[in-house]
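User: My instructor asked us to take a sequence, write out its structure as tokens, and then describe one feature of it. I'm not sure where to start. Here is the sequence I was given:
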Amino acid sequence: IVCGYPNVGKSSFMNKITRADVDVQNYPFTTQSLFLGHMDYRFVRFQVIDTPGVLDRPLEDRNTIEMVAITALAHLKAGILYFVDISEECGHSIDSQLDLFDSICPLFSNKPLMIVMTKTDLVKPEDLTKEVKARFKSLEDKKVNIGSMSTLMEDGVMDVRNNMCDVLLEQRMENNMRSAHFKSILNRMHVAVPQKRDNRS
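Assistant: Let's start with the prediction itself. The structure tokens for your sequence are:
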């Protein structure tokens, strides 16, 4: 699931990595419902969900469009890509975008999570202020993965996609190994170790 403030590059990312064709415009709430796209990675089909933008305000003040995104984040079992426009071209400061992340973070519990710094063609991550760098560093210290990309320059887009897919594949493997079906197969397996009978290796 791709989420964040309006106009941070969610739909552009969706169009780059899937066969979807989501409308991209330079004004907020262009995306007014969930958009689904599909892609293949390591012979596995992935579904990507583009959500409407969410603003940092109390739940009762959120409109129907925002509630679509909140509902998807709360109820769908998926990995989360939270986009932060570090150029602030979306009309919201980085602090505001990270404040929103903090407020909806409980929705991400037990889900693979990555914060993605977008529009790096306009502002490089290394050019951010010390205060902003410190906020991202504090999130890294909490084991939150942080990536960066520019959909315009197509820089880092596939790295973000591949990193999240790898995390999801690893999670799937761990879940399969914990399943009763996998354990029943293990109970029927026996690994034979032959005894050495001479000096030949």
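For the description part of your assignment, you could build on this observation: Strands lie at 2-4, 35-41, 44-50, 80-85, 113-118, 145-148. Try explaining in your own words what that tells you about the chain.
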